[in-house]
Amino acid sequence: MAPRFSLAGLLRLRHLQQDQAAASLGAAHALLRENSERHTRVRAALRDTASDPTSVAALSAIAAARASTLGMVQELGALGRVHESAVADAQETYEEARSRSIGLEKLEAKHDALVVHEELREEQAVIDEIASTSWHRKEGES
Questions:
Q1: What's the pTM?
Q2: At what angle do helices 56-141 and 8-48 cross, to 10 degrees?
């Protein structure tokens, strides 16, 4: 039976941490994308607002609506920067988790290669023993 990779449990833990970091990164990207889409819709609404006032009251209402919408655009821009920062942090966390996994994955690959090499060596020893026994048997018969 082949020896088990002694750090397999730690490698599983590192993969779980990497998966969690990837999920957090995906969620951060989704929030950023959602905010960007909302920002685009609000800017389009601001651009498409009718600006033909029929009275002073209508002009005042249009100005208030534009000011409110402009404030919303600015808030969405600030929120977008917060989301961009969150994405950068999540990306960094993911890359750290990935780098911790990579070292263990390389050790596991080396371990697996050594196990395969040892199994092949043992198999070759058995084949050599069978061939040697067969040769000696034939020599003894002659």
A1: 0.71
A2: 150
